[in-house]
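A quick word before the example. In earlier lectures we treated sequence and structure as two separate objects. From today on, think of them as two lines of the same record. Here is S9 family peptidase written that way.
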Amino acid sequence: MKKHILYLLTFLCPTLLLAQPSSDILLLDMAVKKNQVILSNPRNITNHPGYDNQPSFHTSQPLVYYSSANADGKMDIRSYNLNSKQTTDFTATPVNEFSPTLTPDGMHISCIIQRENGQQDLGIYNIDSKEVTVLIDNLTVGYHAWIDNKNLLLFILADKGHELQHYNFDTKQNKVLAKSIGRSLHKIPGQNAISFIDKSDSTQWLIKRYDHKTGAITTIAPTLPQKEDITWTKNGFILSSDGSKIYTLKPGKNQDWQPVKVQGNTTLLKSITRMATNNENNQLAVVVSE
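And the structure line, produced from the sequence above:
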């Protein structure tokens, strides 16, 4: 079984490829007016050879955290200050770190810690001391999203594929909620719920909602064809991309994805994948090919 899981880790999970694709992170200004999203002024905030990916905004400070390749090819966490335009190394460790995420208490950055043997743990780094605490080391964690301080959803690489699991820190119990899921897990703004991508039907992937209180899983909308990366605005828009253009959909308002107007140097927008929005609802970070 261990050999099987290692095969899955190496060939199926994007974060575990030995040679990470070269990518950069663009920052765009965002205006949300009524039922329209307008993006402008795309600029490169990493501009660094190699892998820069998985951006995540701090909720109250002008910082973007992301995973970035160092000179030795290891993945560390870096932060970009939106005000000073300065980049800082948040970690400098012998392991790989992916998917930096501010914890609900605002005191830590949680991330996936990849060991030399391929094991992937979920850990947290104290923002001030950088002290690390491993939270989960008995599951192969690919991605994660916090529901609250005690609960989170996990993308788990299991023996039979990718699973969505709910993990409770009080009971230390994990429960499988769905299988054949995508990597995009997001807290839905203003709701006690998480969205995830259901890829069980290869012809039509779906954005689904997990309600933490009731345990119900419902369908929100189809994804763009064969695209799994999304993000939410504070007022309920979903943003996604077909790789070259950015689209938006407002559940309950729009039935189809609508193209978003981008003002500025759109030539930077190529091979768009992951996205993140800030808490103020006025900036969007996107990952593009280098």
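Notice the following. The chain has a mean pLDDT of 92. We will return to this example when we discuss secondary structure assignment.
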